[in-house]
Design goal:
Keywords: Hydrolase
Radius of gyration: 19 Å
Distance between the termini: 40 Å
Strand content: 35-45%
Largest sheet: 7 strands, mixed
Protein name: NUDIX domain-containing protein
InterPro entries: NUDIX_hydrolase-like_dom_sf (IPR015797), NUDIX_hydrolase_CS (IPR020084), NUDIX_hydrolase_dom (IPR000086)
Helix content: 10-25%
Order of helices and strands: EEEEEEEHEEEH
CATH superfamily of the largest domain: Nucleoside Triphosphate Pyrophosphohydrolase
Number of domains: 2
Pfam families: NUDIX
GO molecular function, one term: hydrolase activity
CATH topology of the largest domain: Nucleoside Triphosphate Pyrophosphohydrolase
């Protein structure tokens, strides 16, 4: 964790990290919580294949990823799915067809800061495969891959590896 040393309240170099979720000032009792962030991941499925993206930026540049992202303030998980799929893939979805599957904790490291996330997994079925006009800043490639050909080690995030391992097993 990148250390924050100076208290934003009193300005003194007196912040301490409790190695779990908060910084506290030893001088003025200010507390800064580093709470869990909500994120979504969507299994876009066409029959026995799922849609994966290849990351074009850190963290985990070059690794495979499910489409999704962080929830904005005042946004539902379903609306996050809709927004992220449009931003990343220019894909318009009907949120009433999203199916919530499960949630898993994860750590998303970005610029030396570990963000604890709660990843919410959804499934979205499509009738036919599609191609997308890639948002180059986030995605370098897309792939449709049969469930039985997914190599979990190619995935970017531990929560997605754990999720897909269970998801694939439940499809048998």
């Amino acid at each position: 964790m990148k250390n924050l040393n100076f208290c934003p309240s009193c300005g003194k170099k007196s912040l301490t990290w409790n190695h779990e979720k908060k910084w506290s000032c030893t001088q003025c009792s200010f507390v800064l919580y580093h709470n869990v962030a909500g994120a979504v991941a969507v299994v876009i499925r066409c029959e026995n294949e799922i849609f994966l993206t290849q990351r074009n930026q850190e963290p985990k540049k070059g690794k495979l990823d499910l489409a999704g992202g962080f929830t904005d303030p005042n946004e539902s998980a379903e609306n996050t799915c809709k927004r992220e799929l449009f931003e990343e893939l220019r894909l318009h979805i009907d949120i009433s067809n999203l199916r919530y599957l499960t949630s898993l904790p994860n750590v998303y490291q970005y610029k030396e800061i570990d963000y604890n996330t709660l990843d919410l997994f959804f499934e979205y079925n499509v009738n036919e495969k599609f191609k997308v006009d890639l948002e180059v800043s986030e995605i370098s490639e897309t792939i449709w891959i049969p469930l039985d050909q997914i190599n979990l080690e190619d995935l970017a995030f531990d929560s997605q590896k754990k999720f897909l391992e269970s998801y694939i097993e439940n499809q048998k």
